[in-house]
Amino acid sequence: MLDLSVYSSQQNQQLIDSTDWNVLETEFDPSRLHHQETVFTLGNGYLGTRGTFEEGYPHDSPATIIHGVYDDVAIASTELVNCPNWLPFVVKVAGERFRMDSGEILHYERRLDLRLGIVSRDVRWRSPAGHTVEFHFERFASLANQNFLAIRCQITSIDFEGDIEVEVGFHPEPRTQGVKHWQTLKQGGLDNLIWLHSQTLHSAIEFGMAAKLIVEGEETASVCVRQGEHHHSTLVTTLQVEPEKTVTLEKIVTLYTSREIPTPAEAALIRLVAAPSYSTLLAAHIAAWERVWQDSDVVIEGDRLSQLSIRYNLFQLLAVAPRYDDRVSIPPKTLSGFAYSGHIFWDTEIFILPLLIHTQPALARNLLTYRYHTLRGARRKAQEMGYRGAMYAWESASTGDEVTPRWVPGPNGEQVRIWCGDIEVHINTDVAYAAWQYWQTTGDDEWMRDCGAEIILDTAVFWESRVEWNQQRHCYDIRDTIGPDENHDRVDNNAFTNVMVQWHLQTALALWDWLVKSYPDTSAQLAEKLYLQPEQMELWGDIANRLYVNQDLATGLIEQFEGFFNLEDVNLADYEPRTKSMQGLLGVEATSQKQILKQPDVLMLMYLLRDRFDRKTLKTNWDYYSPRTDHSYGSSLGPAIHAILACDLNQPVEAYTHFMRAAMVDLADVRRNAHEGIHAASAGGVWQAVIFGFAGVRMTNFGPIACPNLPPNWTRLKFRLKWRDEWHEFDLTA
Amino acid sequence: MLDLSVYSSQQNQQLIDSTDWNVLETEFDPSRLHHQETVFTLGNGYLGTRGTFEEGYPHDSPATIIHGVYDDVAIASTELVNCPNWLPFVVKVAGERFRMDSGEILHYERRLDLRLGIVSRDVRWRSPAGHTVEFHFERFASLANQNFLAIRCQITSIDFEGDIEVEVGFHPEPRTQGVKHWQTLKQGGLDNLIWLHSQTLHSAIEFGMAAKLIVEGEETASVCVRQGEHHHSTLVTTLQVEPEKTVTLEKIVTLYTSREIPTPAEAALIRLVAAPSYSTLLAAHIAAWERVWQDSDVVIEGDRLSQLSIRYNLFQLLAVAPRYDDRVSIPPKTLSGFAYSGHIFWDTEIFILPLLIHTQPALARNLLTYRYHTLRGARRKAQEMGYRGAMYAWESASTGDEVTPRWVPGPNGEQVRIWCGDIEVHINTDVAYAAWQYWQTTGDDEWMRDCGAEIILDTAVFWESRVEWNQQRHCYDIRDTIGPDENHDRVDNNAFTNVMVQWHLQTALALWDWLVKSYPDTSAQLAEKLYLQPEQMELWGDIANRLYVNQDLATGLIEQFEGFFNLEDVNLADYEPRTKSMQGLLGVEATSQKQILKQPDVLMLMYLLRDRFDRKTLKTNWDYYSPRTDHSYGSSLGPAIHAILACDLNQPVEAYTHFMRAAMVDLADVRRNAHEGIHAASAGGVWQAVIFGFAGVRMTNFGPIACPNLPPNWTRLKFRLKWRDEWHEFDLTA
């Protein structure tokens, strides 16, 4: 039975009561302000801007976040900062400021057009003084030219005759979760232009932004610069309106940072002055999204909520993937929120990357090259911790050095030690795994030669120094680690980690053979650079064969780590209904003593190394671990993986429940934390659930093939995958 | 007899061997480099740029000087600074830099088109490697948009096939007579643009300049930014040429200072990016000059050298008069050289202003308003010296405070005291005189009410405190002064000064009557502001009537100052020929003990107050003072005045000699100091000599009338004068 009740609230019905390309909001509800700000986030591969309103509200959380613009901060070392806000657009009707929390809203609709990448809003508003005016706002962050942003506002008077004043500007020094990161170096205005030149306080990244205001059909002379408080320049125009007259205003914004150009303030000005019209910018933007959707769209028929939600998840990932920058990656909240400080986790390689590898390989390559550029940081980390090779940071930022906080304030003010940066070592195989998947799928030998091989080999070198020979058991241990299930830290022989390391070392050897044969010069250079010796490579095979995994030979059940089966067993159903994670409910310490999983661990392994486990083994482990996993408030990384494995076990209805939990996590605020930002890994998992779960795609030497397990209500599933320069079209019907 | 031999050198013959609108140079003569740099100066009311060559030479003196951009300096207090050079434009033919001092010049012609305001140059050059190429350079400083400058270079290969590289840029920190005044705040480049943002070291005037390079008929992509030494950005392009192929390059430059806009660097960029094409800029520039010439041109027929030279002198004045700025004035060397540090003297009011009052009254008004804005400085000077009212600085800059150097290094290293700033007080009447002339000619009552009255009245107040009652003689003395003839300083009762003060006080009273009657409110406010009392005003009349002047009642001969007639008399002819001033020849001290005039003093008075002296008195004084004046190397302010008075005495041939000395002072380097810059006062005197001398124009209550005394070779003299909103056309024939 499909239980969709949780998603069939009036809100969600409103959401889908439209085309399959539009996320709608039909009332202005201040209580959902922050959640909807996340939902209506726009991005263009360079920056993300939360869906706050142009006119601003007292408790709103405006944010514009640019890839790679980190600044130093306490505890988290470095964080992506909230950049100067480009949205401010204030309209005054007969002197009264347009605000939806004053006067009367006669009609309201906000729309995120996923196909076009546009957020728009229609409001019919009666001012406190009784003037009725209609507003149509629309905005986009150009996908065609990442340094251009634009807002168009059409104002139609219904019954008002008189002056409407429009003032647009910037908010130059927004804080990031309370922390100041900006100093304004210079700002000013001239004609119908304003600009801002600022710099981050510690990392000294320069930021330049410029804007112009255009009154359609009027001379620019009608716009002038106003010097506001703190010498803050804005652009102002006053329009004479009368009933049934519509005026159109366009705010065109350019912005640059010193990350991409040495002179961002000048570049912003130069580009702005020479900027095409709003319409021309918009046309190029729409065409760019059209090209993206051509390859990445997934069509689902028979289930409009699934259709809309898959597109929403794809949109947010396609909107955040860096297009022209291979020194940044995708944070767990995309560029839509500040949780996790914008650090980079395995979320990118394991959850987000498959969509891009199979439909936008150039973007996948950018993200993987970020890991190549951060190898030096990974080597520093290994060296500092007494190991060899490259040890990727659990949380990574610009340099690849570890930026996971070591101590964080606990709920009662005590300091809590966070071990992930020290011992959540599976990140090292995750990166290697993604590099391998990219290569296998694309056949991009050059990238593997120039970047991938060094990643896979130097992280393999690390494992050699990290494993310990257990003389008693006559095998290798990997002790004191954290697996994907972070409810249990400082464990020995985490099965996920050990088997993945096994795969890693075996893969590294296979890769080395290929490299020596195909690119002997490169292999010789790498051998010298990474101190690779033939006898050492033999050791890799030995380690791979002898890594300890506690698996019951009869049933195939794998113990998550040594001693897991000895922990207290718990029936999670006893705690339902709840609105918190089990860890939140029981506490960190108590949870770690119980068989409660935050997210799949052994099962995650069985998904990643899908071909190594037969259906019976999967069934045994699924039956054991799935009931012990906190599906509702554990990690948002889990549901999509469970959906895939459920499909593998021919349980499409259970799969669908997991799938919808992932697919709707942001649209329906399933976990009540969507205000913190988009769940990027979940979004990537949603695509994997559709492709590898419901469509049952498996990779063969001849390309992808589908073994579908469609949910009962899906009548059609259509998508395409690129495999070694060829597109494979899938059009599956029930 | 007309003796034109001095001007009929081959050089001058070349000069005039053309239309009546072009100054020509037909050979590149390094020995005349600096003189010709002055001659080929361009200006647009905002800046002046000396005629140095785009490619630069080891000993050249490039200078771009902007009105009002002063910076602190030793001795002279403050000086107009040499602004970053916008000209650099380097061409390399097959790697060899185009320089007229290497390879071979097969043809050369430089031209200053006075009508169009364009300097152009044609050079056919054979490179050291033997490649022959033709260059056509042209440049202008836009009169239509004072912040735009442009260079066009057309290169035609005669026999060369290969690469020509063009590199354009700025010289960002030129020195001003050896002194550093600039710090570069920022510079950079992007696409086909470069920019510079700098600041004066002491006065903190910001300067912004930007340039782009356009290859006609090619994509901008062919131009790129090169980072040279000291991070100095230039724009570079490489062109493939072949015989008979012409390539055209355009360098468009914008520049601003913080004097006119708070954000000059940004403004320069904004304007540059949105700049019209070279052709469009040029068309607007030509049209602007056309409008100027329509009112200010003087047509002389029968004497092409006079025709060309009058236009040249007019051109340089019209090119320097500030168009949109009433807080600057015209320095004695215009904006073409650094002599006198760019300070403002009486040269502007007495010599330059009449041209503008009668043909470009809006520009005259700007210049007079400069004196209004500097009244506060003049009041400070009066107060510091123990006087009341306003005492204009002999040398004035931005604030109106006195900036005449008090001590300067003498020829033998000794310190020489310069008294002009303390006692050359006639400047106070000169300013009042010019304000009055402006008003009388234009009828601009509003300006007189708002600015002029305060100038004339407060400077009159000064005289009241400056004169001394001489109980013995029962008259007022003005003691310890310097008159126009600076060969004699610290004199008592200089006749020029005393009679001008007489005029000043009488005029102030007449003005006051008018003001009280026409604008009682303004007069009341001024009375309060300037502490004007009725009894005090009566005193003015008394002082005017009793100022001491030693005039022989029988002959009308006026003694230049008390004791002049007792000084040693000298026959100047005894010292001819000479190439120095008499003061230079005899020394300061010795000259001051002799009856040798640097420039007209009593005769100057007779010109300024022309109606107060009859012909007989003029003749007496002319016969006495003219032979005692150093016409050739004394002040360049003298010859034009002598020309006028010679006309009044019906001596047009003698007048013509004086006239040509003034008219050719820069073109023919008559005084051998043209390299220091244009002689602005002389240029203004040249116009006055033509209009008030040869045409014999006198002002009546019904407007100007002409009583011509044309030189024998002039067949026609045509010009127009504006009198109280009406144009009066003069077309005089011999």
From TrEMBL, chains A, B:
One GO molecular-function annotation for this sequence? glycosyltransferase activity
Q: Which residues form the active site?
A: 486 (proton donor)
User: An example of a Gene Ontology BP annotation on this entry?
Assistant: carbohydrate metabolic process
> Domain Glycoside hydrolase family 65 central catalytic spans what residues?
311-688
Domain of life of the native organism: Bacteria
Domain Glycoside hydrolase family 65 N-terminal per the UniProt entry, residue ranges:
25-259
Residues involved in substrate binding:
346-347, 598-599
Q: Which spans are transmembrane here? A: none
Q: Which Gene3D superfamilies match?
A: 1.50.10.10, Glycoside hydrolase, family 65, N-terminal domain, Maltose phosphorylase, domain 3
Q: Which UniProt keywords apply?
A: Glycosyltransferase, Transferase
Q: Which family does it belong to?
A: Belongs to the glycosyl hydrolase 65 family.
**What is the protein name stated in its UniProt record?**
Kojibiose phosphorylase
